Amino acid sequence: MCLVWDMPRICFGAAEQEYYRRYTRWFGREGKAAAQLCAYALSKYNDWEERINKWQSPILDNTDLPAWYKSALFNELYYVSDGGTVWVDADFKSRPGHTPVSPAVVNPTQQVQEYGKFAYLEGQEYRMYNTYDVHYYASFALAMLWPQLEICILYDIAAVVPYEDAEPIKHLFDGNVDMRKDAGCVPHDMGDPDDEPWERVNAYLVHDTVNWKDLNLKFVLQVYRDYLLHDNDLQLLSAMWPIVQAAMERGLKQDTDGDGIINNCGADQTYDTWKMIGASAYCGGLWLAALKATCEIATVLGEVEQHDKYLSVLQLGKKSYQEKLWTGSYYRFDTSSRKCSESIMSDQLAGYWYLRASGIEQDVRSLLCRIINTSKRMSAFS
Prior knowledge:
This protein is an alpha+beta fold. Helices cover 47% and strands 10% of the residues. The protein has 13 helices and eight strands. The strands form three sheets. Strands 1-2-3-4 form a four-stranded antiparallel β-sheet. A two-stranded antiparallel ribbon has the order 5-6. It has a two-stranded antiparallel sheet with strand order 7-8. Helix 6 (132-145) packs parallel to helix 8 (215-229), helix 9 (234-253) crosses helix 10 and helix 10 (281-301) packs antiparallel against helix 11. The longest helix has 27 residues, at 34-60. It is globular, with a radius of gyration of 22 Å. The two termini are 43 Å apart.
């Protein structure tokens, strides 16, 4: 038995653009392909099952891996298709009288033209597409299993970094009115499905994310990781280099005391109810990792002057990070005088995690043991 829906066209809430689902490239856009889709699925399902079994068997047959881990690896992938997900072709039809202005809508890059535009919600109750601060964590699923889709997201994000949208937006946390998007900033998200994704980014209304400290750094780290996972794609790296430089230049401006470490000034990162003040274990670690990744990118591209520039900042930053935050067994939460500044944040290794995934390792076992042992004492779920 085979059940399909042929729903070829997508309009979001604002109905300014009409997009066409990716499959329509082969099955048409008239909404009359249900029988053809069924026939195709019935002719291919044996091959699909065989490929799924071949993919899963090395993990499922590995007796060294616990059952919960196997379940999480495969079953949690449901969200890739069920997370309010859209996969559309790059071309679209605009509403009469409307011309899109965001460079993410009309993205002429060969990658997007060939593989389309892909977006998934942060959550069913957190209605924003491709929320980039948390895509940092989730993106490994795409990068390792559907790498072309991950690269498409990267190109769409990169397209809007230099873009400015001066529409005034009132933010809920402090009531301030700020512009929707400032040039030089990685967007928090690619928009709300009840509005017009890709055209109006930054649907997140709690804080102004223009001065968030993690978004630009996570972009740089994903660029370098995706370059490596994409068979050392030099074309990708070259295309992203100007955006990487813009992102890092903004980071340099966020180092307000010149110690080589960016400074937090509140709930200005993905943990958006946690205030970080001064140097922090989380954003400081991301910053050092992004500096290292930038140096590696510059080396690949032969950008000697830029390599030396960021290496100098990295060396200073490592010294400051160690002196200001290291307690002897972990990096403290931040450099404020608050009681919470002595907390152990497990995600202080978020930057190192990406470097390790990119083949750059260092010994963090003692720090990791301290985090794990503390978690075991505090929670039965660790």
